[in-house]
Design a protein that fits this description.
With 264 residues, the protein is an alpha/beta fold. Helices cover 34% and strands 22% of the residues.
């Protein structure tokens, strides 16, 4: 049987079982499933039990797994759903918030804290991390960098970071600098990080398409494994809210999710 012939079967199977069926690693099987969804060969509402987004996945020694006591296990899908839900709330209230990136991010951080606390995580804004180096174009970025959003385990261990920016157009140097900053801040090689883009435009889809093209053209410190994947229709029917995924080669594959919300 060809892979496409398995589509109906796959909808009833877990990622682990699919990987076993195809004799592939889970990350490779996940990539095949994502491509099948994008090509409309697989139901977009399939339960994607992707790489777990919980602290135990960041431990190097498997024997330490049983030390972790978390209320719930947070998977990629849950994480995406939580951010999309709270960006939707932010979107509804954006007219009452001062139009600044920090103000939007403070709102979002407070919202995320309520949901992610159920999984044993704490969300903080403007934590010091990594290094930005000297930068003549953006001198305020020099030295130790401030991470816009940090997600930490209850014991304080960093598990994911987010970078936020406001876009009214694709200013390449500005946008590229923010996209590269997240890898400067992430000194650990975290499995999952994310971008939050607050768009302020009338032609939202046009800006989203330009952003995708820009991301695909950037020479990242940790190169793209494949082109940008638009996964918006899997997770939202809001035409003014988009989500995408890039995978980067850092020895192992590392994920960067891109959340794009219109606050115009």
């Amino acid at each position: 049987m060809k892979i496409d012939d398995y589509s109906k079967i796959f909808e009833e199977m877990s990622l682990k079982d699919i990987a076993k069926k195809l004799n592939l690693r889970e990350d490779k099987a996940e990539q095949i499933l994502m491509n099948m969804i994008i090509e409309k060969k697989l139901n977009a509402k399939i339960k994607m039990d992707c790489i777990y987004f919980s602290k135990e996945n960041f431990e190097e020694e498997p024997k330490s797994y049983n030390k972790i006591k978390s209320k719930k296990t947070l998977k990629d899908k849950n994480f995406i759903d939580i951010i999309i839900k709270n960006l939707g709330i932010l979107q509804q209230n954006s007219k009452t918030i001062l139009s600044e990136e920090d103000k939007y991010t403070k709102w979002l951080t407070n919202l995320l804290n309520k949901d992610l606390n159920e999984y044993g995580f704490i969300v903080k804004m403007h934590e010091l991390s990594g290094t930005t180096g000297s930068n003549r174009t953006y001198p305020n970025l020099g030295g130790v960098g401030e991470v816009d959003i940090s997600i930490l385990a209850k014991d304080g261990e960093l598990v994911s970071i987010g970078e936020a920016l406001v876009l009214r157009s694709i200013d390449r140097p500005y946008t590229e600098e923010h996209l590269k900053k997240i890898f400067k801040y992430d000194t650990k090689g975290l499995p999952v990080n994310f971008m939050i883009i607050y768009a302020k435009v009338a032609k939202f889809k046009q800006l989203w398409d330009k952003y995708i093209s820009l991301v695909d053209s950037i020479k990242f410190r940790y190169p793209l494994v494949q082109n940008f994947i638009d996964i918006s229709e899997i997770f939202t029917n809001n035409s003014e809210l988009k989500v995408g995924l890039t995978k980067h080669n850092r020895g192992d594959v590392r994920k960067l999710y891109h959340f794009f919300v219109n606050l115009y």
